[in-house]
Amino acid sequence: MTETQPARSAGTVDPRPIIEVDGITMKFTSKRSETVALDDVSLTVGEGEFVTIAGPSGCGKSTLLRIIAGLARVSAGKVSLYGKPVTGPQRDIGFAFQRSALLEWRGVRKNILLQAEMRGMDKKHAERRVNELIELTGLTGFEKALPHELSGGMQQRVALCRALLHEPRVLLMDEPFGALDALTREHMNIEMNRVWRETGTTIVLVTHSVPEAVYLGSRIVVMSPRPGRIVETLSPGLPAERDYGTTLKDPRFTEAAERVRDLLGATHTTD
Ligand SMILES: Nc1ncnc2c1ncn2[C@@H]1O[C@H](COP(=O)(O)OP(=O)(O)OP(=O)(O)O)[C@@H](O)[C@H]1O
User: Fold this and answer.
1) CATH of 17-92+169-269, one of 3.30.70.1290, 3.40.640.10, 1.10.10.10, 3.40.50.300
2) In the chain, ranges of CATH 3.40.50.300 domains
3) Could you check whether the bond before residue 251 is cis, i.e. omega within 30 degrees of 0?
4) Pure H helices in the chain
5) Which ipTM was obtained for this model?
6) pLDDT (tens digit, 9 = 90+) per residue, 16-28?
7) Is 57 in the pocket of ligand 1 (CB under 6 A)?
8) What is the pTM of this model?
9) Ligand 1 pocket, mutate which of 38, 53, 59, 210 (most atoms under 8 A from CB)
10) How far is the CA of 226 from the centre of ligand 1 (A)?
C-alpha cells in the first residue's frame, strides 16, 4: 500500500460521527403477522471506528446494516450517513456479505473491477486501485484465477477488494467470514485488522463469533433477541494493532469476551 498510513490508537476515536442511527424501530407487516425486528435502536459510529455487532440469530443485525445502507426503510426513527439523512440506497459505501457473490466466469482482477464498471469509474484509476488492493490482501499471483480455483478465504478477500475498490469511507460487513473454517477465519480477522488500520475505513461488522467481535472491534455492540435492542456497548481499549495470539491472552480481551458471552448467554435464556 503506497498511501500514507493514518495514525490510530484504540480508544481515541475521531468525534466526527459518520453513521448516526437515532431511535429506529423496524416492523415487518404482512396480512397474517407483524414482526418487530428492531426496537428503539440508537448507535453513532465515529470516523475510523471499527464497530462489531454481536447478537442472537434473528435479532435484526442484517436489517440494521440494510437500513444504514438505505436498502430498507425504517418504521420510526432516523438514520444519517456523513451527516445527511438516508432516504434511499447509498452509493458511497462498501458492502460485503457472508457469501462472496463472485462471478464464476471472471478471474480475480475482473471480479474486483466489476465495481468500477458498475460505477463508471475512471479505468486507469481503477486499475491502479486494484493493484494496491491485490497487494494489500495478499492475492498477488492469482489475478487471473477463477473463483472455483480459490480457497474460501481467498474468495472473501476478492469480495473485500471489490467492496473497497471505490474507496468508500464506510464498509458494512454482514457475517463475512461465517462460512469459513476456524483457521481461515482467524487469518481473515488478522487481515481485516490490518486493512482497517491501513485504509482508515469506518467499518461496521456483524458477527456471531465472540472472539471475532472482540478481536476486531474498537467498540462491540451486543444486541438482545428479537425485537433487537442494544443491551450493552463495550470498549475494551485494546491497541489498534493486535497480534492475534497475544491479544487473545490479553486480560482486556478475555474480560470483554467473557462479558459478551455472558450477555449473549443471558439473552439466549430469555429466547
Ligand atoms: N423482508 C422481511 N420481511 C419480513 N420479515 C423480515 C424481513 N427481513 C427480516 N425479517 C425478520 O426480521 C427479523 C430480523 O432479521 P435479520 O435477518 O435482520 O436478523 P439477524 O440478526 O441478521 O439474523 P441472523 O443472525 O440469523 O442472520 C427476523 O425475525 C426476520 O425473520
Assistant:
1) 3.40.50.300
2) 17-92+169-269
3) no
4) 61-68, 108-119, 123-136, 152-164, 182-199, 210-216, 244-249, 251-269
5) 0.96
6) 899 999 999 999 9
7) yes
8) 0.89
9) 59
10) 9
